[in-house]
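queue> holo job accepted (serine)
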Amino acid sequence: MEAKKIRSTFIEFFQSKQHHYVPSSPIVVKNDPTLMFTNAGMNQFKDAFLGNEIAKYPRVANSQKCLRVSGKHNDLEEVGVDTYHHTMFEMLGNWSFGDYFKKEAIEWAWELLTEVYGLDKDRLYVSVFQGDAGDNLGMDQEAYDLWKAIVPEDRIIMGSKKDNFWEMGDVGPCGPCSEIHIDLRSDAERAQLAGKDLVNNDHEQVIEIWNLVFMQFNRVSDGSLKPLPATHVDTGMGFERLVRAVQHKSSNYDTDLFAPFLAALAKKSGKVYGEDLSTDIAFRVIVDHIRAISFTIADGQLPSNNKAGYVIRRILRRAVRYGYTFLGFHEPFLHELTPLIAANFGDIFPEVRQQQEFIAKVIFEEEASFLRTLDNGLKMLDQIKADLKATNENVISGKTAFDLYDTFGFPLDLTSLIARENGLSLDEKGFAVEMEAQKTRSRAASESETGDWVMVNEDQGVEFVGYDYLKAHCQIIKYRVVSDKKGDKYQLVLDKTPFYAESGGQVGDTGWLISETEKVKVIDTKRENDLIVHFVENLPKNPEAQFGAEVDAAKRFATENNHTATHLLQAALKEVLGDHIQQRGSLVN
Ligand code: SER
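queue> job finished
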């Protein structure tokens, strides 16, 4: 059965059991501060579990794009080194929101695996939560009894909180779970040692494929468990692993999900997959990472210098370096795999097809920019390795790792990976100290000192009249001095002002304050909460006086036009190129 058919069979099976198909939510999480990326199918249903929202359908089935490279669920170091972890993977799930519970979840899972996909019952093991004293929870007897009716008791394994109590993060919905594991070893190997002893033991051929979570609690920030208003089912099956089991392969990468990608890489590099351990890891890392990178870019997360963007940049740089060192790619190559992403995943995830060209462009730019410094960085690392060897040391210092980061764009985990490959370790604490020192230096460089407000006239509130007028009679309510390396400037608050404070990307107005005796130039206007603050280089000699505030009309008019034009441009780009066009920031001056 081809992967596409395996996926559609899952959805159809649950549709036949009155489940509604729901498309995957984006892999990039925008509205949940506890998560950067979707790390489980249940993320989009979190509010339904917590009772904050009524689920649209009581039964749902889907295939969710997930990324596990940060936070509580992080598999990055395993990816490519082994044959069954991924950065981005699809999680097939069926869901009950306050509807069916353990009985149906267990019975349907078994039916699908053994009767529909035809997996060998003798190769399957199941696990049940054994209870946890710390959380004051007993064993999951109900799940145990349900499994006992289906499988021989010696195929049921009792599991600890670590393996059999599923939590989304430090807080959030959670509950005991039952996992289904499969033993994919040869018959001879199975005869020698029971698969049961290898479950949850990091064995490449004895792997978890499906996790049935029985959502019953909410973990709150003091660490305690509160019962949920209703009980729910959240199941997650690793699609790539299922495909491997159904297709009788010994590695996820040998399935038709990855084969076209491996073939393309082999063709381009002239190397053969399956001949050498280091090259094989490189092949696997690259074909894994290209999926993660493409899917996140399609969902609007561009590689960048911080937060979620930096996670993507790190993954991309890791792939580039594997290609460079082990497959001999010294020119951008990753972007050439994006047509395969579109061709293989465009049916179920149309966004990767719609945005194929855009994804390729972003990846190309990133690759090209990292390749400009990669070679010099690797040369520096070679020198470091030689120096350490000469002095019989084996720790790369924090300072060195920081220089590699700062000068050559080497993410810390990349340096650490190269260190490991060479039998060296890395002083991560030292790196953190250097990083902090740099932050302090840049803070100091931009530091300024702000004096206290000095009252000049009575404060009866601030009136903004700038939408209708470019001139107004006004008084200064208060001022303060701001000193930095360049000298002193002043900030004024007026009782009435036509000056537009910087906002929505439109720069603040400039202009003049004119009294009978003097004319002071306003060089900028910004907002500080409810205050409109006018920046001037010289304090008026007679601040109590009456002033005429006058905006530089020609500049304001041009700026307003440009602001409108940015919105028109944005709308036109969306219309012509598509909805993936997003404004990331704006400077209208
Ligand atoms: N939430 C569970 C998991 O991620 C099952 O979907 O493993």
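queue> Residues 244 and 252 are 5 Å apart (CA to CA).
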